[in-house]
Amino acid sequence: MLKNTLKRFLMGGLLLLSLPSALVNALEVSLYVSEPEEINTTSALIKGHSEMMVVSAQPNISAATRLANEIEATGLELKYIFLTHAHLDHFQGASVLLKRFPNARFIATPDVAELQRKRIAVSDDLARSRYGDNAAVPSPIVAPYNEDTIFIDGQPVELSRGFYGDVALGEPDEPHTVAYVPSAHTLIPSDIIYYNGHVMMGGSTKESRRIWLTQINHWLKQDYKMVIPGHMPKGSDLTPMGALTHTRDYIMAYDLALENHDNAEDVIAEMKRQFPTIGHESALLIGTYMNFKVMHKLLFNPTVETIFSILPDALAKWIDEKIYESKKADWQGEHIH
After folding, report:
1. Inter-residue contact 82 to 53 (CB < 8 Å)
2. pLDDT tens readout for residues 38-51
3. pTM (2 decimals)?
């Protein structure tokens, strides 16, 4: 019996040695999701046997601190903090992570890094007004990373550039980077994909939404093991197809709502009617008010609403457009701070 057991052990060992190294050393990917008041921002933890990286650093001190605790609990060396796009809810928490893990590198593709640097001042101001003492400021400057692959314990994480997604006040073709982990068959598109929540459509155009949908339709053919969206409610039963189809269906519905309605309130009402149970409503409100350039509504202030209601329509529209132009220039880093 001992002889047979030893024989099976040796055969199993030989079989293990014969397996491709990519399979034996496959990376593991896990998901972290912040609280609703932290707009349910996600982070992807990509883990090897001794090293790891994280995609998205979270929006504020509390969310990033809990993420840091999860990273520390793995016992792995954090090599990289990777930024997929230049939005404050994904990069400001890097200030917390870098204090806990000073040997980690905070990196992004060069186009994303350049845009993040331009936006730091306005992003930090916005974070202070939004989060107060919980704001993770000042934001660290992300370093440009020129390669198309990151290696974790010798296993690749592939980076692809030039994707369309959530842009808010940015340009429709604002850069987004997608990470793919071949050994885990996992796609990390961040804010190109949302799940079970309203999608930020601000700044998008009919053409950019068409390209956005083309990207998603391609991914729907790939049979991924995991797709990690940029935002999703905690506790959601995430599936790859669920995340991709949710975003696809939402963009198509938003396109149709814009065709059928000529004002922000009707578009918002239509999207709430079609998606009555999903969260992240702030994305719907903010994005739609941006698209219709009714910027005073972003203050969510009844007094301001009353003042605008008694202004002549032409004057109210002129003020809103001037606010829009100024905010967009700030967001693009065109103003000197």
Report:
1. yes
2. 999 999 999 999 99
3. 0.90
